[in-house]
Write a structure and sequence with these properties.
This protein is an alpha/beta fold. The chain contains eleven helices and 20 strands. Strands 4, 5, 6, 7, 14, 15, 16, 17 and 18 form a nine-stranded mixed β-sheet that branches. The longest helix is centred in the first third of the chain and has 26 residues. Pfam families: DAO (PF01266).
Length: 413
């Protein structure tokens, strides 16, 4: 039995800890927050979406980004402040345009397989997370965007996804509460939505019941090889005393699932993991009246023009998320990025009362090729499961299984 430390208690870290536990390993999870799922896994768009598996490395995405550069409310916003990491990442992003087709197909296949693992975990551990299996509806304002979606649909179908075109009339039958005029849409009946925070917290509790050790408020300072083991050192705070103390433990193996901090830990271990933090925003609209609850959709949406996604989280909450912002590690919640989300709700669902809206911002850990990195490090005993970008919730249950496969093959080899 290996003693394994997982750094990070977001959706990727917790699903990885669970998969390692299932494989018979002794697992400790370290996280700098007091509870699991307090950063990017706190309030994302909620979609478990194979239909959103298209990678962003395309000429059309680059052209849209250039067009949007002068708009403060643009779906994609690039801050021009100098940063070697940002501009080198963009260079690698552009290089990976040549792999757009292959990576989109591969991501689709992964997303379809991942949902099977996630649903099995939720059923096995009796996790309630506002799951809605009502599909995801992509909506398009004009013919050109619809035809572009048809081309993407060819790749999604090659990846095994059943995603069908719908007319404006069919679109309204699928989600009657939606207002506005549309050229058409695409509907993926097999996609679903759920509350990532509830799922991750529930799975963490299941892990604890079965012996996984979680050490929170643990700010990891160093990860250092010491012969055949790894010494991990962190600062923590004693409950009630407010005093900082330094702890350390040795482990047989290290798994880095630290989201946007993964690049820093990889550097400590002699590896290069080129994760960049891409900020996204969401609002959670609390549906406090019968009128609001009736006016809010249950079918999940993706508005192509606004680059906004939605999820219904139980009867009383409506999640709306979007935007991509390249501003480094800035986590500030900006009014000029939140207001377009609220305005979108008012335009598309005028019957919803938006007097109680909770804003949030999180940093997506993105690799330049838009693919998660599930790999070994240069040193034996080092592993990475990170860089999932906008599909961390969708892909997490599968990449956790892939990571265990690497750990087990190293053990048997």
């Amino acid at each position: 039995m290996s003693q394994i430390v997982v750094i990070g208690a977001g959706i990727t870290g917790v699903t990885t800890a669970y998969a390692l536990l299932e494989a018979g390993h002794q697992v400790t999870v370290l996280d700098r927050n007091r509870y699991p799922a307090m950063e990017t896994s706190f309030a994302n768009g909620g979609q478990l979406s194979a239909s959103n598996a298209e990678v962003w490395n395309s000429t059309s995405t680059v052209l849209k980004g250039l067009k949007w550069m002068c708009r403060r409310d643009a779906p994609l916003l690039m801050r021009l402040s100098p940063s070697w990491h940002k501009y080198s990442w963009i260079g690698e992003f552009l290089w990976n345009i040549r792999y757009y087709r292959r990576n989109t197909i591969d991501t689709t296949r992964m997303a379809i397989e991942a949902r099977r693992h996630l649903f099995a975990i939720a059923e096995r551990e009796k996790i309630s997370f506002d799951l809605e299996k009502r599909g995801i509806l992509h909506i398009y304002d004009d013919r050109s965007s619809f035809e572009a979606a048809e081309r993407v649909n060819t790749l999604l179908r090659l990846g095994g996804l059943d995603r069908r075109a719908v007319t404006p009339e069919e679109l309204r039958k699928i989600e009657p509460t939606l207002q506005g005029q549309y050229y058409g849409g695409f509907f993926t009946e097999s996609d679903s939505t759920g509350d990532i925070h509830k799922f991750t917290r529930g799975l963490a509790e299941a892990c604890k019941r079965r012996g996984v050790a979680f050490r929170h408020d643990a700010h990891v300072l160093d990860v250092k090889p010491t012969g055949d083991t790894f010494k991990v050192t962190w600062n923590s705070y004693e409950a009630g005393a407010g005093a900082k103390k330094t702890d350390s433990l040795e482990f047989d193996k290290v798994v880095v699932c630290a989201g946007v901090a993964s690049r820093r830990f990889a550097s400590m271990l002699g590896d290069r993991v080129n994760v960049y933090p891409v900020k996204g925003y969401s609002i959670t609209v609390h549906l406090e009246s019968d009128e609001s609850r009736k006016a809010a959709p249950y079918v999940s949406l993706l508005d192509d023009a606004a680059k906004i996604v939605t999820s219904r989280l139980g009867p009383d909450r409506f999640r709306v998320a979007g935007t991509a912002e390249f501003t480094g590690f800035n986590r500030d919640i900006r009014t000029d990025r939140i207001n377009p989300l609220t305005a979108w709700v008012r335009a598309k669902f005028p019957g919803i009362d938006t007097s109680r809206v909770v804003p949030w911002a999180g940093l997506r850990p993105m690799m330049p090729n838009m693919m998660p990195i599930v790999s070994r490090g240069r040193k034996a005993g080092v592993f990475y499961n990170t860089g999932h970008g906008h599909l961390g919730w969708t892909l997490s249950a599968l990449t956790a299984e892939m990571l265990v496969g690497l750990v087990e093959s190293r053990k048997s080899g």
